[in-house]
Amino acid sequence: MAFAVLLALLVAAAPAQAREALSVRWEPRVVRQGDVAMVFVTGLPDAKAVEGSLAGQPLTFFPYGDGYAALAGIDLEARPGMATWRVGVMDARDRPLKASGRLQIRARKFPVQRLTLPREMVELDAPTLQRVEEESKRLRTLYATITPERHWRGRFAKPVGVPDAGEGFGARRIINGQPRAPHAGLDYSADAGTPVVGANAGHVALVAEYFFPGRLVVLDHGLGLYTLYFHLERADVSDGDRVERGQIIGRVGASGRATGPHLHFAAHLRQTRIDPALLLQLRLPE
């Protein structure tokens, strides 16, 4: 069960007026590397604007219940310790209200995978290396693009209909004896041609064929949240398409640098790499 911490900040109004309370609640109140958290702001239903940050990274709020909420991502390589958060509100009378505090980030134990692969799969020639760098840059630019509307609603759906829960998020990979970047997604083993569905509503931000991910689809769910679907046999959507939760967007394959058919499913909140398994556990009313 998620924990919550409540901070009430009393803000002085005009002398003849009562004081109002701005309440900020985090769920959970202690997070780990790769976690996704929710921050709720209540107490001022008529607020004109709400903004905030966690460890200097912006939080994007949306109306929720009698207040506002935002998703907060903890990168899988975030430094453990205390992270400062800040929330600012402009109330109905154009008065700025502020709250701040600290959120504890704990280290998470990730598995170590030692792989031996053919040399040509990991040691890239100069043209291929340039291609990989350009493709990575395009993805980073995409993740930094914030759609102001929230498209996702309610729960997130598992992207492929297989019994296993996926594996490998955060794994520290040592390939042919050399440490590599941590694995930033979940891998689902499935037969080639198995349908892949969108985890939630959104728009298709990218359909492409990249060196490492192979044939891929990226969905923009709004407010900086993206889900990624790699190594597809084929894509059944096009750039700009509207996608609903559970809609087929492609088929499992082994394109790109893959040793066999599987789906690599990942999630980014802006540039932050979050555990998609925790996104699937997120529960908010429709």
Q: Could you give the topology of this structure?
A:
Blueprint: E1 5-11, E2 20-27, E3 30-32, E4 36-42, E5 49-54, E6 57-59, E7 62-64, E8 67-73, E9 81-90, E10 96-106, E11 112-115, H1 119-122, H2 126-143, E12 172-175, E13 178-179, E14 185-189, E15 195-197, E16 202-210, E17 214-222, E18 225-235, E19 242-243, E20 248-252, E21 262-269, E22 272-274, H3 276-281
Parallel strand pairs: 3-10, 11-12
Antiparallel strand pairs: 1-2, 2-4, 4-8, 5-6, 5-9, 7-8, 9-10, 12-13, 14-21, 15-20, 16-17, 16-19, 17-18, 18-20, 18-21, 21-22
What can be said about this structure in brief?
The protein is mainly β and 286 residues long. It has three helices and 22 strands.
What does this entry look like structurally?
The longest helix is centred in the middle third of the chain and has 18 residues, at 126-143. With 286 residues, this protein is mainly beta. It has two domains: 5-106, Macroglobulin (MG2) domain (Immunoglobulin-like), CATH 2.60.40; 112-281, Distorted Sandwich (Glucose Permease (Domain IIA)), CATH 2.70.70. It starts with a strand and ends in a 5-residue tail after the last helix. A hairpin with a 3-residue loop joins strand 16 (202-210) and strand 17. Strands 14, 15, 16, 17, 18, 19, 20, 21 and 22 form a nine-stranded antiparallel β-sheet that branches. It has a five-stranded antiparallel β-sheet with strand order 1-2-4-8-7, with no helix packed on it. 10% of the residues lie in helices and 45% in strands. It contains three helices and 22 strands.
